[in-house]
Design brief:
The chain has about 450 residues and is of the alpha/beta class. The chain folds into 2 domains: about 10-220, Rossmann fold (3-Layer(aba) Sandwich); about 235-445, 3-Layer(aba) Sandwich (Rossmann fold). The chain has 14 helices and 13 strands. It has helices spanning about 10-20, 35-45, 55-65, 75-85, 120-130, 150-160, 200-210, 220-250, 255-265, 285-295, 305-330, 355-365, 400-405, 420-425, and strands at about 25-30, 50-55, 85-90, 100-105, 135-140, 170, 190-195, 215, 340, 370-375, 405-410, 430, 445. The strands form 2 sheets. The protein has an 8-stranded mixed beta sheet with strand order 3-2-1-4-5-6-7-8, with helices on both faces. Helix 6 (about 150-160) links the parallel strand 5 (about 135-140) and strand 6. The longest helix has about 30 residues, at about 220-250. The chain is elongated and about 75 Å long. The two termini are about 45 Å apart.
Length: about 450
């Protein structure tokens, strides 16, 4: 907990806090995706009116009809709030002037050269500036490099003549969503908040304290931005370690998943991480590169983090090579072989495909001449993604269907798959997730 600084009297702040406390403040959330939509529901549950903003008219139309396009968010919960008049969605950004708090949940991808792509944040900041008024609270939740809030948002918003901490209030509060997770929710995950001034911090703390069980205050927006990066870089580095050990264990004839299971029986000093076909999701594959880019501005090389990124981004190539090796044992070249990829979501039991390594693996297999199909119970068709357009639909699993494939590649270990049945009916199985751990079969290759 950061020691609370004395906040001078401010009528704009007092008015905002009063409206927040009595739930008459209207919340505007920009970006109706995996981060923004759960926030909508949480604010509605606590009695706030919410306006959801998105540039995609199809999303807005779907939400207005009370339907969900995210698997773990039921349509009934959206429809209930729409029918009550508590929630509405719109593409009209000019309506930002109607709300009291603006929460930004827009994408922060990388460019092709792995530098921060801030187009969405900058565009949103300009749009907010056009509609900014005294008493507004603006919160950035998109994961980004330390300094974004004060270097990108603050100047753009203050060009209006309004001043942060006096006329409006600016904070950074990183999202901590984990789609499909059952043991934690938006309400129970602590919320980190950093402000550009004591008044801003107070405004942010007051707002988020109404919808989460615990608010963690930090001294600045930069500290809050770095907090999010540390959380994900910690995971990235440890997954890279497991991926490197997986490749070493493969050469040594040791099962890495067996080793991890044995190691995690130690009740202290060890936390299990697991290897895979590469990193997926919006955060872990991207966040390290945000920090390494920013570090270069301070003439500092984040060598350890960059090495972890290199290992993780190389894993799809390793997987494809293991497929080629497996086929070669069966006297077949990769070119012309029929490959079935099981699972294209970035992790098990969700429909989220953001940065999924399965997409890159499919592209690499196709580039090398393989004929590729996929099955995923949560992804009936692969949508057009940033930098990818596969135009593929999920194929059905069945005994006759399985017979036509030279190799089955387990890219995502969904719980609904019967892995014993799959191994029994496959000629070759390349397992990137340890889904067949404990099974003994010459058909199985760990990758």
């Amino acid at each position: 907990m950061i020691k609370e600084e004395k906040v001078a009297e401010n009528k704009n702040l007092d008015g905002l806090i009063r409206k927040t406390e009595d739930r008459t403040a209207r919340i505007g959330i920009i970006g109706m995706g995996y981060v923004g939509l759960p926030l909508v529901l949480r604010f509605c549950e606590e009695g706030f009116g919410v306006t959801g903003f998105d540039v995609d008219p199809e999303k807005v139309e779907t939400l207005t009809a009370g339907r969900s396009y995210i698997r773990h968010i039921p349509s009934e919960s959206i429809k209930g709030w729409v029918d009550q008049g508590r929630f509405e969605a719109t593409t009209e950004m000019s309506r930002l002037g109607e709300v009291d708090a603006i929460i930004i949940c827009v994408p922060t991808p990388l460019t092709r050269t792995r530098e921060p792509d801030m187009r969405f944040v900058k565009g949103t900041a300009s749009t907010i500036a056009e509609n900014l008024r005294p008493g507004h609270l603006v919160s950035l939740e998109s994961t980004t490099y330390p300094g974004t809030t004060v270097e990108v948002l603050l100047p753009e918003l203050e060009r209006t003549g309004l001043r942060a901490g006096e006329d409006f209030f600016l904070v950074f509060s990183p999202e901590r969503e984990d789609p499909g997770r059952k043991d934690f929710s938006t309400k129970t995950i602590p919320k980190v908040v950093g402000g550009t001034s004591p008044c801003c911090l107070k405004a942010g703390r007051t707002l988020y304290s109404k919808v989460v069980d615990r608010v963690i205050e930090v001294s600045s927006t930069q500290a809050a931005e770095m907090t999010k990066l540390l959380e994900n870089i910690y995971r990235c580095v440890n997954i890279a370690l497991m991926n490197e050990l997986k490749m070493l264990c493969d050469r040594m004839g040791i099962d890495i998943w067996e080793v991890i299971e044995a190691s995690k029986t130690k009740p202290f000093g060890f936390q299990p991480f697991y290897p895979g076909p590469g990193l997926g999701g919006h955060c872990i594959p991207i966040d390290p590169f945000y920090l390494t880019w920013k570090a270069r501005q301070f003439d500092f090389s984040t060598r350890f983090i960059e090495l972890a990124g290199e290992i993780n981004t190389s894993m799809p190539y390793y997987v494809v090579n293991k497929v080629a090796e497996g086929l070669n044992r069966h006297g077949k070249p990769l070119k012309g072989s029929r490959i079935l990829v099981l699972g294209v979501a970035y992790k098990k039991d969700v429909d989220d495909m953001r940065e999924s390594p399965a997409v890159h693996i499919i592209e690499l297999l196709k580039e090398r001449g393989a004929v590729v199909d996929y099955n995923d119970p949560f992804v009936p068709a692969i949508p057009k993604l940033r930098g990818h357009d596969l135009e593929m639909t999920s194929t059905a699993l069945g005994e006759e269907a399985m017979e036509q494939y030279d190799c089955v590649l387990i890219a995502t270990d969904h719980s609904s798959y019967d892995y014993g049945w799959i191994v029994e009916r496959s000629r070759l199985v390349v397992d990137t997730r340890g889904a067949t751990a404990g099974m003994r079969s010459e058909k199985i290759i760990r990758a």
